[in-house]
Amino acid sequence: MPKIAPELSARAVSALKVEGRHAVGGAHGLHLRIANGHRGWVLRITVGDQRRDLGLGPFPEIGLAEAREKARDVHKLVRQGIDPMITKRAQRSALITRQASEKKFDWCTTEFIRTKSDEWKNVKHRQQWENTLKSYASPHIGHLLVQDIDLQHVLLCLEPIWRTKNETASRLRGRIQSVLDWATVCKYRSGDNPARWKGHLDKVLPAPTKIQKVQHHPAVAIDDMPSFILALRQRDGMAALALQFAILTAARSGEVRGAVWTEIDMEARAWTVPGPRMKAKREHRVPLSDAAIELLKKLPRIKDVNLVFPGANNQALSDMSLTAVMRRMEIMAVPHGFRSTFRDWAGDRTEYPRDLAELALAHILESKTEEAYRRGDALERRRDMMSAWAKFIGCTGSITRENREALDE
Known about the structure:
- The protein is an alpha+beta fold.
- It has three domains: 10-101, 2-Layer Sandwich (Double Stranded RNA Binding Domain), CATH 3.30.160; 105-211, Tyrosine recombinase, N-terminal domain (DNA polymerase, domain 1); 222-408, Orthogonal Bundle (hpI Integrase, Chain A).
- The protein contains 18 helices and seven strands.
- A four-stranded antiparallel beta sheet has the order 1-2-3-4, with helices on one face.
- β3 (38-47) and β4 (50-58) form a beta hairpin.
- α4 packs across α7 and α5 (123-141) crosses α6 (151-162).
- Residues 111-184 form the Core-binding (CB) domain.
- Belongs to the 'phage' integrase family.
């Protein structure tokens, strides 16, 4: 029969100073171990045919009464055929796993942006994501575990700006949804996404189309294009030439400003914009009218500079350079608006098919079936349309004295 240690009092236990193991009684195998100035509880137990020491915590943080209670609980588990060491390791593993999966929204935002930003076009796009979530989401839900975020938390972010800044709020909703979707895939949360719109937020928030005023890019009217082009052609500077080329090709400002001579095939009379520089990330061929070819031939070619429209220090023109030309001309419109003017002209003043104009603008066709069956890009048909556009706006021939006099009038 094992020897039963006498039960020491709390004062007696506190008085123990000699290094080694001291049986304290009150629970079989319970000892206070003293080593190198550290004092802690150890329970010697036999599990099956194995004898083990199980730590129960430090002294005096864990007092004598609590240590005896813990020791009795361990003995009870052993009598039930449960290995307390395995149970302890399982509990520790579960704790570590739970801690690893408990992530706050701000942390998930940072990680989501880090992993996805390589897909985005530029640094500015990443900054927009960071700024929107930091300004409107982080103050409300940044400190919350993503697993706890629900409808009321998302509404805290959206409702203050949903009616006054709906475009920003709509982007915010989509970005919160993306972060929470990412967190779900990473097993940091489960269940439906509380930021989803269809069948969820659309039931508690008014539709953006009902409260958002659509603001189109200010554009020059169709009938004002000939006089505008006449004035533009008399302006000096690379930005004015780039703007003229953008109008002739119905291209976006960024595509024109980034154009390089290696993309231009003068013999084939085509400009091929590579996919990475296009909004839709698809290569786009642009037919060059006679007026566009004539403009390109007049451009200076600078040694070791591949840009078609180089700006200061032979760098690309800034994104405001074309807008500045229009401001100096006192035109209340923006460069992007000429794409709208071209589309209105093609639809209202010509018999060219709708999809041809959409191809000229490098728009993705809405009909997936139509897009799947269209293998070509109708380059030659679009060439005829762009030539008609150049003729309509008056970009053919040279500027005559009569032109200038008409402009002065």
